[in-house]
Design goal:
Elements lengths: L1 E7 L5 H15 L6 E7 L11 H9 L14 H6 L2 E4 L2 H10 L9 E3 L6 H4 L11 H4 L2 H21 L7
Parallel strand pairs: 1-2, 1-3, 3-4
């Protein structure tokens, strides 16, 4: 089982979108039994809240089911439990490392867009941030980034031999 935790600031926009998109992609490929996918926040601001209506609306436009979720904060135990902890931007990554105890000793923390060009390059890239639609209002751009990152992540896992052919 591959355990993935998506992380953003509040856990109502980008990370929940990523959780729903990756769940949808692995379900379509009949790989859901091989995955545990969740999401969390680096902050406490939105704890207990459902996904943002902009995220819900954008996913519905794509026919992607929204995973039932309430915002929660990442913990140090999450670092120990999950195989991949995937942040959306540089600030998330800094906060994730802090929550993990000050270092990424097991090299589990990645930025989502590190995987976006994996198909073209065959390697992880220094990545741009997934813009926070809470501030930009642009859920379309966020969706495009999330989809590219999630598809690249699946290809990365396949090429590493962690999942079978897709």
């Amino acid at each position: 089982m591959i355990k993935i935790l998506f992380v953003c600031h509040g856990n109502i926009c980008r990370s929940t979108m990523s959780q729903s998109v990756l769940t949808h992609l692995v379900t379509r490929r009949s790989l859901i039994p091989f995955f545990e996918i969740d999401s969390a926040a680096t902050s406490r601001e939105e704890i207990g809240n459902p996904p943002h209506y902009g995220t819900v609306n954008r996913l519905r436009q794509e026919g992607i089911p929204v995973v039932a979720h309430r915002a929660r904060q990442m913990t140090g135990d999450d670092y120990l439990y999950y195989d991949y902890l995937i942040g959306m931007d540089s600030a998330n990554i800094r906060n994730m490392v802090r929550i993990a105890g000050g270092k990424d000793s097991q090299e589990k923390i990645y930025k989502l867009l590190s995987f976006a060009d994996y198909e073209k390059t065959g390697k992880l890239q220094q990545a741009a941030d997934v813009a926070d639609p809470w501030y930009t209002g642009d859920f379309d751009a966020t969706y495009r980034d999330v989809l590219a990152g999630c598809e690249g992540l699946l290809l990365y896992l396949q090429r590493r031999g962690e999942i079978g052919g897709m």
